[in-house]
Amino acid sequence: MFPEEKVRNEVATMRYIYDQTSIPVPFVHHWGTKKKSPLELSPFIIMDFIDHETNMYDALNTPGCPRAEQAAKTLLQLSRLSLPRIGSLEQVDDFTWAVTKRPLSIPMYTLVELGSLPQSKLPTTTFDTTSSYFEALAELHITHLVHQRNDAIDSPDDCRRKLVARYLFRKLARKRRLTKHLASFDGGPFKLWCDDFRSANILLSRELEVVGVVDWEFTYAAPVEYSFGPPWWLLIEKPEYWPRGLDDWCSEYERRLQTFLRAMHQREDKAIEQGWLESTQRLSGPMGESWASGDIWIAYAARNNFASDLVYWRKIDQRFFGSTASDAPIDDVWKQRLELLEPDERVAIEKTVAIKLKEMKTRELVWDPNDYTKEAVEKIFGRKPACN
């Protein structure tokens, strides 16, 4: 999906990072759109190969081989880059970049690829405030469930539970309660954020030094809440996929996080001593506060559509709306929250439930092919594909 947009974003980002930091990203020699490729198959990038022995993923999985300080240095350099709007970069000339395109994220990509979301429902603009961006993401959560087909729900009450979570999350976003803690950053500056920044994309030499960081296509200027949250990949597996549940993930993550924060603090001390970091630019403090306050889960739920249900009910709901009856199962808390919704929202929920129940029976498929697929179908069958 969105191949031209992804390649354009990745090239602009790599060249910006190459110019503005010492992070070892591949040098881009040339790139082009589909029309500029030799056989007009796809957009392309010609860039340096980075010779490496292993990656951070394998290092983190090797006992006695901690490399947290290496990752901390990269995160610190990214956090120093300040941008005026939320969105993707465009290279204006050899030495100038601007935020002019929508923030194309991995979750947005996945919603279209796997979640039956029409491409037209994704955001199309940049954002000048964190609060407006979080509200747009909250709207996207609702739109996602409305459009996701067939196996999106298990039962009428499962549908209501998911919708109540989404409507309450939107209510919090509209009232700016989700961004209240960092309200001074609402209008920026915003920080460069890579959705795909993870241990497997950090390449290491035989001596376990970072020699390259790759896969930047889903990188954009984002709210500071993203950068201030400690990285989920310290535990390798995402919390929503942890086999023993979210609480166990948090328990295991807590131990790994403290090691990482100590390494981050040590790297910050060195950077301040070397003169390329100000004391006010430390990340270890904000990351620790994000974990302690639970702000990490707000940003995580905002940007991860398929994990929003789990995270909302277990980490967000009671923080903002208070405790519930002690004997109420977590899956039934939504029933106590219905009164917090507006009458028209409750009506909208029941209309959506009826539609989703009908879809469970008909199992109608909806297809929104991209331009590449349309062109291929037209060449093979001599006609344009139907989109329903």
Automatic annotation (TrEMBL):
Q: InterPro entries in the record, alphabetically? A: AGP_Transferase (IPR051678), Aminoglycoside_PTrfase (IPR002575), Kinase-like_dom_sf (IPR011009)
Question: SUPFAM superfamilies under this entry?
Answer: Protein kinase-like (PK-like)
Signal peptide boundaries: none
Aminoglycoside phosphotransferase domain residues: 4-248
Instruction: Report the superkingdom from the record.
Output: Eukaryota
Question: What PANTHER family has UniProt attached to this entry?
Answer: AMINOGLYCOSIDE PHOSPHOTRANSFERASE DOMAIN-CONTAINING PROTEIN, AMINOGLYCOSIDE PHOSPHOTRANSFERASE-RELATED-RELATED
* Protein name per UniProt: Aminoglycoside phosphotransferase domain-containing protein
